[in-house]
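Posting this for the archive.
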Amino acid sequence: MSARVVRVHRPSTSSTPRTLADIDDAFDDLVGRACTGDRPALGAIAIAVSRTLLRAARLELGDFHREAGDVLHDFYLAVADGRARFRREDGHARHWLTRIVREMARQHRAARERD
C-alpha cells in the first residue's frame, strides 16, 4: 500500500482580508456579484447570513413570524432574477440585505393583515 498525499490549497495571505473594512469590501463585492446573476455568490450569501436575515424577518412579521422563511425565499428570488440590486451607494451590503428583508417582511405582514 502506498501513502496518499493530499494537497490543500490555501489562498495567499496577500489576498486575505485583514481589516473589518477589507471584509466589508469583500462582502460588498460578493453581494454585488450575486445581484448580477452569480449563483455561487448567492449561495455563499445564503449560507453566511440566512440565520440573521431570518431573525430580522421574524421580528418584522410579528404574529406571522412563522412565514419568515417565505419572505427570505422571496428575497433570494428577487436577487436571483435581478429585482433586488445592491449598489455601493446604498451603504454596506450587510446593512442593505437586512434593510431589504425587513421591508419585504413589512409588506408581507401588511398583506396578511389585510386578508
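Residues 39-61 form the longest helix (23 residues). The mean pLDDT is 89.
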